[in-house]
Amino acid sequence: MEKIILEAQKRVIFGKKNKKLRKEGLIPAVLYGRKTSPIPLSVGLKKFQDVYKKAGDTDIIDLIIKDEDKNEETKKVLIYETANHFLSGQPIHVDFYEVEMDKPITAHIPLTFFGESPAVKAGGVLVKAMNEIEVECLPADLPHEIKIDISELKEFNQTFYVKDLPALKRVKYLIDINTPVVTVNEPLTEEELEAELGKTKTVEEIKVETEEKKEEREDKEVVSPEDKSQEKPE
């Protein structure tokens, strides 16, 4: 597996001053771990985005940390959490977690579905019960993703379970083996489709219902003079 490297600088500014970092194309970050006290850092936005695209939340990163005196040390880390700007979607803060390579960890691994299901091709509806699964293993054994070939789903109502997932060396699935992962449901008949469509309310019906509920709520909120006299002052 290709080694993923990211450089970081120890950070000496905090709070509102982090705006200056972001204007310079950097984002504030923090590193912590089971035996690691929090270390404030900054990383380049563009470099972080490139690394995140490769590593996601599951691949080990060699985080090279430099200080003002050009000293550096390397930590084995995972990207634990990112905070994104509500408009641009760009990361504005990152949490790194230092892992102990000889200690098992748990992580949520994304499921990737590929192939063409004959049952879906025949009109069935593919229903994904989960998009990720929790596993336990040593950090070096963390899979980047788990691939599922849906071409095995050949009949309506056929289900792919956790027990059908590929067996990975030194990786333990932390969920019941009989949990459904993906199913192909039988297509709706014309009668069932019409019944479902019949349940859909028009905008006018929803509006009338909303107004009725509003009036009902307002009636309940009317307080009698006796009740008002017993109210406590704020």
Can you walk through the features of this model?
- The chain has helices spanning 18-23, 45-55, 118-121, 190-198, 203-220, 225-229, and strands at 4-10, 26-33, 36-44, 61-66, 72-84, 91-98, 105-114, 125-128, 132-137, 146-149, 159-161, 172-173, 180-185.
- By secondary structure, the protein is an alpha+beta fold.
- The protein folds into 2 domains: 4-98, Ribosomal Protein L25, Chain P (Beta Barrel), CATH 2.40.240; 105-185, RNA Polymerase Alpha Subunit, Chain A, domain 2 (Beta Complex).
- The strands form 3 sheets. The protein has a 6-stranded mixed β-barrel. The protein has a 4-stranded mixed beta sheet with strand order 10-7-9-12, with no helix packed on it. The chain has a 3-stranded antiparallel beta sheet with strand order 8-13-11, with no helix packed on it.
- It is elongated.
- The CATH architecture category of the largest domain equals Beta Barrel
Structural class assignment: alpha+beta
- Strand order within the widest beta sheet: 1-3-2-6-5-4
Integer average pLDDT: 86
- Reading off the top of the CATH hierarchy, the class of the largest domain is best stated as Mainly Beta
Estimated share of beta-strand residues: 35-45%
How are the SSEs placed, and which strands pair?
Blueprint: E1 4-10, H1 18-23, E2 26-33, E3 36-44, H2 45-55, E4 61-66, E5 72-84, E6 91-98, E7 105-114, H3 118-121, E8 125-128, E9 132-137, E10 146-149, E11 159-161, E12 172-173, E13 180-185, H4 190-198, H5 203-220, H6 225-229
Parallel strand pairs: 1-4, 2-6, 7-10
Antiparallel strand pairs: 1-3, 2-3, 4-5, 5-6, 7-9, 8-13, 9-12, 11-13
